[in-house]
Fold Retinol dehydrogenase.
Amino acid sequence: MQSEEVLPVCLSPSVMAQKTVLVTGCSSGIGLALAVKMATDEQKRFKVYATMRNLAKKDNLIEAAGGTLGNTLEVKQLDVCSEESIRMCISSIPDRRIDILVSNAGIGLIGPIECQTIEEMQKVMDTNFFGLVRLLKEVLPDMKKRKSGHIVIISSVMGIQGILFNDVYAASKFAVEGFCESLAIQALKFKLHLTLVEPGPVVTEFEKKVFEDGMKMDLSAADEETADMFVNIYLKNYKQIFQTLGQAAEDIAEIILAENPPFRHQTNSLYAPITTLKYADPSGDLPIDTFYKMVFQHNKIFNASLNFIKLLRWRSRKSLDLGESSFQ
Ligand SMILES: NC(=O)c1ccc[n+]([C@@H]2O[C@H](COP(=O)([O-])OP(=O)(O)OC[C@H]3O[C@@H](n4cnc5c(N)ncnc54)[C@H](OP(=O)(O)O)[C@@H]3O)[C@@H](O)[C@H]2O)c1
């Protein structure tokens, strides 16, 4: 994304007072990139409370944010699975004032459901869905009283369209989307705005953790065909999909800062055809049929398309690099 397309954030230009921002899950990835982007803003428009569940992981963030700690950046402990931790964190913020809340913390889970425990699945729902609910129970009443606030939720394209072997993760993001769709109507009455950010693959720790867990998964509870599908189709293509279609966490951070973001914002235009299928056929058959054919019948074409996209992206990056250097 070109920087000139990006204008100041959720801010009307006339309001120049520093906005208080709270971001969850800032130990790595999108949360870290966003906290750094906002804390290092040249016009110092933000006071960023970058939170993480384990403060022992704060060094990468502090280093990436340069000398902003104690000025535009504060680092605080917040575990979205603990009401007590959320309450303590919010209560430690002056006047409990949060102008922009970014609900980013999340975890993934892949694989056949017969090989996952209910506890593992509950942890995904507890983090990705109830984590957001817990945050809002604490932050929303203050925002309502002030009649101002922006809530940004890092959802996923999987909040719109499920993808093979992501059953529970997609369910957690669908839950987030349904919750926000309902809440947005009430929120508007209080002049509050919600934005669902829906990235496709983003190259972060998430990708590595999920892949490693998938590789280590005990597949003995699955039948041979399902286990083979997971290992030889899903895991085999996993890295290739991230390499080809993946965005950088910094790009997502930049997009979140766009002016007047809509309620739903997909960050990766390469995913638009997939989500469009969903809206094109209310019966739901079209996306399922297309995915089925793409994975099981036309996988060679699918792989060739990925390689083609990879080549196009490489060429466009190369021409951008050349363009940049010609101005130097
Ligand atoms: N990467 C992708 O491809 C992708 C695509 C679409 C959407 N997303 C969404 O983007 C968000 C950020 O993911 P990411 O890609 O930046 O992954 P990441 O690098 O793994 O970051 C996830 C962050 O969430 C934190 N977290 C996990 N459980 C938490 C809890 N109980 N309380 C507080 N923080 C917790 C992690 O902390 P620890 O370091 O302590 O684990 C980490 O800081 C997630 O909601 C994810 O679902 C990611």
The CA atoms of residues 292 and 298 lie 9 Å apart.
